[in-house]
Design brief:
Blueprint (H helix, E strand, L loop, with lengths): L2 H27 L5 H15 L3 H12 L6 H18 L2 H13 L5 H17 L3 H13 L6 H12 L3 H9 L8 H13 L3 H14 L3 H13 L8 H10 L6 H13 L3 H13 L9 H20 L1 H10 L4 H13 L2 H14 L5 H14 L3 H8 L8 H13 L1
Helix pairs in contact: 1-4, 1-6, 2-3, 2-4, 3-4, 4-5, 5-6, 6-7, 7-8, 8-9, 8-10, 9-10, 10-11, 11-12, 13-14, 13-22, 14-15, 14-16, 15-16, 15-18, 17-18, 18-19, 18-20, 19-20, 20-21, 20-22, 21-22
């Protein structure tokens, strides 16, 4: 946040507040300032407008040297001193001067809120973030409406390592969406405290509102490093990487295609290889021959799968469990016959006897989203459980669907 600009605005606001108070009291109550007091104050006023706070303080000292000052003259001097302190950038003097005016009990409303605002910013500049937060809270309680002070409060919480207050403040802003910078601030706050759960929660909020590749890279890397994450879910991770733009290198495409073949879905492997050639991640350079051999293998397996499809489907329908129905259904989905494929997967899950029921539900949700049925996919994925990574991947798919 550019506090220098805010500080300059506050100086002007304080000055206008002091002058307005002077005019109102003079006209309404008949109070006045004697020339020997008023002349140096007018000079101070001009200097404050030029942000020459120290020079203004010297003029104010001349006014203070006048003997037998009235209560009203002391009030105007105190207000001008507060404005000059803010203009000078002297944080301690700003706090002391503004507090003195507040404690006098002779200011209220907008004028008081402006003084509180200046104190809050001075504490922020002093890096006393606890006091900065306290005074900024008071500013809003007294009716302050300057939107820049919301940033002061948020930064005070953040720099004071009060992540819970940052989170509460962002979560409570129902009338506005948190900015990317604010959510990054929340993530960094939790990261500094080594609060992994808080950090991941913040990154998840970022991928929903600002679905950048880098945030997905972070989330996907973290889910794979969680204790108990199963290696068999590697192809599922790659599906998310492909969906979020994180499948980019030649090795990514090769690895995903091979995993799809191992999972018994050559139609998916073909889709991946075709995408690799389309993006020129495959078919280029000294390994182009290797890439072509993989492509030939994929086409061979797909041809066999399609030739045997009718028999495989009949056998799957006749089987006591639904494992093969899920596999056959996935191939239909990736071949472009999503409605039939999804129906077979659902039939397989309903039949039961599955080796890994949560895996099957995860694959159904993935297939539904791949086919463009996001709402149905989200509802399916909400039912996925398990501590081996299935539930974590399901949650990430849901976030991707909502982005």
């Amino acid at each position: 946040m550019k506090l220098g600009r805010l500080h300059a605005v506050l100086c002007v606001a304080l000055l206008l507040g002091a002058v307005a108070a002077f005019d109102a009291n003079a006209q309404g109550k008949g109070d006045s300032v004697r020339p020997e007091v008023g002349k140096p104050l007018q000079a101070a006023q001009a200097l404050v407008k030029q942000r020459k706070g120290r020079e203004a303080m010297a003029e104010i000292a001349k006014a203070e040297a006048v003997p037998n000052r009235t209560a009203y003259e002391n009030q105007v001097i105190a207000q001008m001193k507060a404005a000059a302190a803010s203009a000078s950038g002297d944080n301690d003097a700003t706090i002391k001067a503004n507090q003195a005016v507040l404690d006098s009990g002779k200011v209220s409303g907008r004028e008081a809120a402006t003084l509180v605002q200046s104190i809050a910013v001075a504490y922020y500049n002093k890096k006393d973030y606890g006091e900065a937060a306290r005074w900024t809270q008071r500013y809003f309680k007294e009716g302050g409406t300057d939107p820049s002070m919301r940033t002061v409060l948020l930064q005070s919480y953040y720099l004071g390592n009060d992540c819970a207050s940052v989170n509460k403040m962002l979560a409570g802003a129902e009338d506005r969406r948190s900015s990317e910078e604010e959510l990054q601030m929340l993530a960094n706050c939790y990261d500094r405290q080594k609060d992994t759960a808080g950090y991941v929660s913040a990154i998840e909020r970022l991928v929903v509102s600002y679905p950048k590749k880098s945030y997905w890279t972070d989330l996907l890397a973290r889910v794979q490093k969680k204790p108990g994450f199963s290696e068999r879910l590697g192809v599922n991770v790659y599906r998310l990487r492909l969906a979020t733009g994180n499948l980019t290198s030649t090795n990514d495409y090769l690895e995903m295609a091979q995993l799809a073949l191992q999972a018994g879905t050559p139609a998916e492997a073909k889709m991946v290889v075709d995408k690799g050639y389309e993006t020129k991640a495959l078919g280029q350079g000294p390994d182009a021959g290797r890439h072509q051999r993989l492509r030939d293998l994929v086409m061979k397996d797909l041809g066999e799968s399609q030739r045997n499809r009718a028999k495989d489907e009949r056998d799957a329908l006749a089987a006591k469990d639904g494992n093969d129905l899920v596999k056959v259904g996935l191939n239909y989905v990736y071949e472009g016959n999503a409605d039939k494929g999804i129906a077979l997967i659902e039939q397989g899950i309903k039949k039961g006897g599955l080796k890994r029921p949560e895996d099957a539900k995860l694959r159904l949700g993935e297939a539904q989203i791949y086919a463009g049925h996001k709402n149905r996919g989200v509802q399916t994925l909400k039912t996925v459980q398990g501590s081996d990574g299935t539930a974590d991947l399901a949650r990430l798919w849901i976030l991707n669907a909502r982005a």
